Amino acid sequence: MRNRLLAAFGTLSLLFAFASCDQLQDELSSEQLKDQKSGIGSVSASSTTYYYDGSENDSVKGKEAHLVLDLSQIADATDAAVKYTLEYSIGSDSDKVEYSSAGSLAGTLSDSKTKYYINLAPAINLIDGTGEPAYGDIAYTFILSGLTNASGNDYNGRSFPSFSKTVKFAPLYTTDSLEFSSKSLPVGSEIKIPLNGEISEVAETVTATVTSGSVTADFTAKVSSDGKAIVLTSKNDLSGEEFTADFTITGIKPVGAKEEYSHTFSGVKFIPTNVTLDGVLDEDLWSASYVATSADSYSAANTYQNIKKVSVVDDGLNLYVAVEFAETPGGNKTNIQLSFDTGADNGSTSDDGAWMTPATTTTFSNGTLDFKAYENIAWVADNATNQRELSNLSASGVCGPEWNSVANCYTNDSKIIEYSIKLTELGVSSSDKVKLFVSISQYEYTSENTETLLDCVPASAASVTDSGQSVAVDFSKALEYTIQ
């Protein structure tokens, strides 16, 4: 019996040893496979959006455009091949037409043989400034094959795995209409030119040509810490100066693009703003003869929701709105809205819904709702098209951050909220007239969800019914202001 047990134990030991060897072999094979893949080489893309050298409405048709692919090993591209499929659409949702084409284009291997450049010409030539198709509706899918290892290692001559990606397109520059405040712009001051995409390099030297004003403008350029802006540093004290200049910046290198861009930002305006958003109207600008005010209030039951007066003024760069309450404003689920008729007459004649609206049902006559700024005293929600929610008005005592060029300020003991909106954001300039209706309302969670008007200025512009849940606004009676 003892011999049988010993024999059985020996057999089990051998089986365990064989199993352990098999497992070790599998582990070694897995590690070897990883080493093999690494040794042969692989392809990767640092960006799958190509940020082209232009703004939204620019034509880049005919410009060189190549996406950069990174190779983990030195490669040979003798047998490389690139096949692509180009897809885009033209028209609106109701009459949209889809297009698709396919073909092949030779790419290019870099001198270091560690990068490969994909030619994007078929797609970039569609961006001709007409908006047909829109850049966001273009998709360029490519497949790269045939690269071989040329590093001289153990895998020399072996083929890289094929690589496929879909490339989207967007303008690098957010706008060509740039405006900055020069109220305080001493030597060493920085201003930022925002970008849609990330850049890795920019030439330090900037050519600044002053086109109006009697100043000498000298700036240097660098990349912002997040790569999403070009930072210009002033070498002169330009505080209080009003001028316009063209800036030519070179060596702009978007991440994922082969090309370096050179771009001129024309007509950049520098205007000394005259208002500090601090909840105190102590600047001379608020005493100007052209300030528009209205104390025509609907008068809310609660004094902290009672608007006493609204004032409007501009400094050539921003429109400022001061909303003064009977006491420090507050209230749970309380919303404030600034509804503008800018004269564009392409806006809406209603603003319905129980969220960030003057009332559950709101209509506009003798004008259209062309721009709306809004905020909730307790919450901060997402921005929406042509609607800019302002910063949270919790009693932090800190002026709010800028949200899409709309900023505000509210402090613990202030009865006044100051708003600043760029004139370019409103789409207005000197001599244009804007009409403003200011309202404060309260949202209620019910089975139907309601928004009830609490107060408004001018009250004479509003016809209020249904216990404040319906408001008809007549823009011909709204607070009117002429841009200076």
How do you describe this structure in short?
It contains three helices and 33 strands.
How would you characterize the overall build of this protein?
The protein is mostly beta strands and 484 residues long. It has helices at residues 2-40, 121-124, 423-426, and strands at residues 43-45, 49-52, 66-71, 75-76, 81-90, 97-104, 108-109, 115-119, 138-145, 148-149, 163-171, 179-181, 190-194, 199-201, 206-212, 219-223, 229-234, 243-254, 261-271, 292-294, 307-314, 318-325, 334-341, 361-365, 371-376, 387-389, 406-409, 416-422, 433-444, 450-457, 462-465, 470-474, 479-482. A hairpin with a 5-residue loop joins strand 16 and strand 17. The protein is elongated.
Let me know the largest β-sheet: 6 strands, mixed
Tally of individual helices: 3
Task: Let me know the average pLDDT.
Answer: 83
Number of beta-strand segments: 33
Strand content: 35-45%
Q: Which residues sit in consecutive blocks of at least 5 with pLDDT less than 50? A: 5-12, 14-22, 378-405
Proportion of residues in helical segments = under 10%
Structural Rg: 31 Å
- Form type: elongated
Give the oligomer, counting copies of the same chain as homo and different chains as hetero. single chain
> What is the terminal separation in angstroms?
111 Å
Structural class: mainly beta
